[in-house]
Amino acid sequence: MNETIVANLKKYLIGEDLDDGVLSRLADRAIGIYKSYVNYPSSATAEDIAADLEKHVECLTDLALNAWAKQGAEF
């Protein structure tokens, strides 16, 4: 899933100075945030979670783009 989100970010951020490590960390962060909001039940299998993440890849990409846009901004 991480690779899909990174590929999507590269499509959106054309012309930007991109670091694969940073994009990968943003993708991981988006996945973590999404999982915490969904709060999967303990009965959910890894396959169930992976299928759900795949269905919501655009949402995950948006979360990562939002985090990228806030880099260096004051809180």
What does this molecule look like?
The protein is mainly alpha-helical. Helix content is 71%, strand content 0%. It is built from 4 helices and no strands. The relative contact order is 0.21.
Draw up the topology in text.
Blueprint: H1 2-12, H2 20-38, H3 46-55, H4 57-69
Helix pairs in contact: 1-2, 1-4, 2-4
Biggest beta sheet attributes: none
CA gyration radius, whole angstroms: 13 Å
Count of DSSP H/I helices:
4
Helix share bin = over 70%
Which of globular, elongated, flat, extended, rod-shaped describes the shape? elongated
Structural class by helix and strand composition: mainly alpha
Mean pLDDT over the full residue set: 91
Sequence stretches where pLDDT stays below 50 over 5 or more residues = none
Q: What order do the SSEs take from the amino end to the carboxyl end, as H and E?
A: HHHH
Q: For the terminal residues, how far apart are their CA atoms?
A: 29 Å
Question: What percentage of amino acids are in beta strands?
Answer: under 5%
Number of strands: 0
Task: Give me a quick take on this structure.
By secondary structure, the protein is mainly α. It is 71% helix and 0% strand.
List keywords for this structure.
single chain; mainly alpha; 4 helices; 75 residues; elongated; 0% strand
